[in-house]
Amino acid sequence: MDIFRARVRSLFHKPQVESELGKEMRFHLEQQTAENIAGGMNSEEARLAALRSIGGVTQILEECRDMRRTNYLEECLRDLRYAARTLLANPGFSIVIVLTMALSLGANTAIFSVIDGVLLRSLPYPQPDRLVRLFLSVPEYPKFPINPFDFHDYRERAKSFESLAAYTHDDLELSGVDEPIRLSAFAVTSGFFHVLGVNPLMGREFSTKEELPKSDQAVILSNRIWRTRFGARADIIGQKLTISGRPVIVVGVLPPAVEHPGNMYRAVSYGDTVDAWVPFTFEGNSSERGSHFLDCIGRLKPGVTPERAQSEMNDLMAQMAREHEGDRNWKVMVIPLKQEITGKSQRLLFVVLGAAAALLVIACVNAANLLLARASIRQREIALRSALGAQKSRLIRQMLTESLLISLVGAVLGCLIAVGGVRALVSLLPANFPRVGDIHVNGLMFLFALGVSLATGILFGLAPAIQSSSTDLVKPLRESGRSTTSSAAALRLRDGLVICEVALACLLVIGAGLMLRSFVNLLRTDPGFHSDHVLTASISLPEVRYKTPESVGIFYDKLVRQLGSAQGVRFVGIGSDLPWTGYDDNAGGFHVEGETPPPGQFFHARYHMATSDFFRTLGIALVEGRYFTAHDTKDSGKVLVINRAMALRYWRTTKIIGRRMTFSDKPKDADWMTIVGVVGDVKDTPASDGAEPAFWWPVSQAPFSPVEMAVALTGSADMGSMANELRATVRELDPDLAVADIRPMEKVAGNSYSASRFALFLIGLFALLALSLAAIGTYGIISYSVNQRSHEFGVRMALGASSRDVLGSVVKEGMRLSLLGIVVGVGCGLALGRLLASLLYGVHASDPTTIASACFVIISASALACFIPARRATRNDPMQVLRAE
To answer: Rounded to two decimals, what is the model's pTM?
Structure first.
């Protein structure tokens, strides 16, 4: 430890240590001199004798310094100081190269932070690798929710799981505590939190007794609701609340930051806010297995793989299929929870990371080219240092130190860019993007930036360092009177680097062009509805107060009438769902009069409910027939409105109006539903291949009471006025009802474009930066070439060459490199196009128009980059150039 402290002291307090070493050497010299004087010598002879007896003072001092073993570090510090002085002496060069590295390192570090938060970091549950999601699958529905009684059998009979739980989205109304509010809630089976590895902060989890019908009502509150709505009351356990019109007892409060695992049916994304949980009750006939709406999550036993669990579950499903007709043909999928959460985002993130990595490579190539050009200018200096005895390894280390210093300074600036970049990325991420809350700046991000900066510093510094240290010593020293010329190897290396960066820039520009074409195609696609100046909201009627479809219909009739009479409101519509909100409830097994389904298939379609003006409010076009009217009541004949997709798929005639369908296997006349209208198609998402078959019941004739309905208003009034009118009207009709999710329809529609918009923005930004860097690199190499060939151009122009000849010669050289880069880039683009295919809409990854446009952009940028130095070459006076040489 003493030796280590001495070495540290000699490294960081060198002047003081050197002073002490000098004093010690003088002390020994004076002692020996004194002894010699005492022996009879005069002072001069005594000093000389002392010097002879001690030996070479300088050598002894160097030996003492060597014993500290800090020479290497001292040399590195000297190299670092020299590199800093060199860079400060060339501020233009230093600023360009440092900013180039900072932008590319910042972009990569920010993207890495997103990937770390979304893909690399473990889920916030104990032993998250053992958590899996279970789904059913058939060819018509590759991924489908679970039937409640199927789940009950799974829990009783499956052997691969330590525990299983099911849950379904079931929002609630909290009233009696200040203003009524909507709670984002889930009905869960017993053991749900045990599966996740979460213990309540207070109270307990649900028991199996609470799964029985007519059991006491219970609720578990989130930590957030407990604190914000109930002031973190310590006596909250056992308190009675009014939730959805029913008295319930609080049995538990969860700890902070419990993450929702995500669900499929009426989806709430992973990590989104959940306010409350209630027990799921098993009701109905256990032999009927046709209704599927539960999400299922399980914790595997130690050592059991998802593949083994899936095999066991399919064996169990085959056994259950022999017991229940409704379980036939279904297969079970067991998917790791992390894969289920992040699977859809992986390709998008890796494409963006690939674009950022390509930008980093372009920046490294640019830096290497700049350093090579600078090293060519320093050939005489390097040759002189070699002639004076500098070793090749010493020269390489000196130049690597310069490149590492550039990269580290770029990394510091890049981290500052990344901090802002992470915040910007989070704000730009698509709607419902998973694990957004886990994305933030942390130490790993800075370690990543440091590691990448060191790697890139070595990468772009090694080639120039080796090239420069291999310089012929004689030629640069002889060329002291004229500009030095690079070797053929150096020129080939620089040309290859330019080709590389042009190829990567071409690849990114092609990708950006494809994303732009895809986004434009999405915007041009007719959504099938109008979103301008439409206000939407959500209302949930508690079943305890609205027990029958008639009572539900009366409430919505009053709401529509009162809102419709408000000033500035033109149309008011009530529907079971809004377009592009993820609704996918299906009804199957109905019969179409006069038609039969294909062998092995059955009729199925999305089912919806709507009031008479719902279609008008949203601008959904009427293709044939009529919309619902006030005459379509519970006492009138049953009617339906279907979409065009359903008409084309299930009827072999163009005359659809008056056709009938029923859900009864032995229908009476009153069981048939008559089609009175056909409306235009609205796809599930803008990028869907087509609309699914769908039909609408009038709200007044719906076979069951809708739990939650969407309200849509349009008119001349502003959004704020319509929102206030909606709240006031609902409060007047039922003071205990909450109005939730008030937002413009434009925002609902805009969220559906967010993934494409995000990919287009980032890839487009990277492509623009790459194009700029490639143009700068081409400009740099051509400009350097012009400087190197100034003597040649002077001679040619003196011998009669025209400015056009010189201009053409320079531009031809640059365009040759650019065209080679474009060929390589297009080839890579065609090879890697399949990675973008899932992100594109209406355009093929090898679209010739896009590729041709990208090539034109690259050629134009390259031509401009070549023209500027070429124009400068033609303006040189031949006599001045020759005289200078």
So the answer is: 0.79
